[in-house]
Amino acid sequence: MTWLIKYRWPLLVAAALLFLAAGWRIDRATQYRQGHADATAMMQATADKQARQAAEAAIAKERAAADALAEKQKEIEYEKRQTAAAVSALDVERKRVQQYATRRADSLSQAAGTARTSDDDGAARGWQLFGACAAEYGDMAKVADTQRDALAEWQAYGSAVEQIRGE
Fold first, then answer.
1. What pTM was computed for the model?
2. What is 11-79 written as a DSSP string?
3. Of these four, 37, 53, 98, 155, which has the most CB atoms within 10 Å of its CB?
4. How many domains does the chain have?
5. 144 touches 64 (CB < 8 A)
6. Which DSSP category does 152 fall into?
């Protein structure tokens, strides 16, 4: 125990240095953990911000595509109304032509005279065929207009999907 008294100052200095080294070591570990937590929080905040921006960009792109699709559908609906009006007008004309063809065929078939009978029968048959062709053409035109409308709608939808995927 005497040696403790004899070497007390060097032992106190050594103990103080040991306490300082231990305190410094504990402080460095605490600072490391705090720095790691700060860096993790900063990276998480950056990742969250980027994810939010990406989501907002995707939503904006989808809205733009939906707006474009709605605009195209308005145009398609306008074209459908215009087509319906044109088809209605053509139906009126087709019926008028069929009535004319029927009257003409009837008047030619009722014409008297043996010399012109075969010619009149051919002309009457021609007018009947013309009326039938006009009716058939009108029906085909309606089908074609319906198919064109459906195609326009699908093309508008496809371009909206392409806009979402492609940009």
1. 0.56
2. HHHHHHHHHHHHHHHHHHHHHHHHHHHHHHHHHHHHHHHHHHHHHHHHHHHHHHHHHHHHHHHHHHHHH
3. 98
4. 1
5. no
6. H
- Could you say which DSSP state residue 1 is in? -
CB 121 within 8 A of CB 109: yes
The reply to whether 18 falls in a domain is yes
Q: Which pLDDT does position 109 carry in this prediction? A: 63
Domain extent, residue 32, equals: 9-166
* Three-point CA angle 31, 37, 42, nearest 5°: 125
Question: Read out DSSP for 111-129?
Answer: ---SSSHHHHHHHHHHHHH
CA distance 65 to 166: 11
pLDDT at 19: 92
Locus of tokens 């995927």:
165
Cα gap 141→89, rounded to integer Å: 13
Per-residue pLDDT of the chain (167 residues; tens, 9 = 90+): 677 778 888 888 889 999 999 999 988 989 899 989 999 999 999 999 999 999 999 899 889 888 988 999 999 899 889 988 888 888 888 888 778 877 876 776 665 454 555 666 777 777 778 878 888 888 888 888 889 888 988 988 888 888 888 75
Within a domain: residue 60?
Answer: yes
Q: Which tokens belong to 153?
A: 């709608």
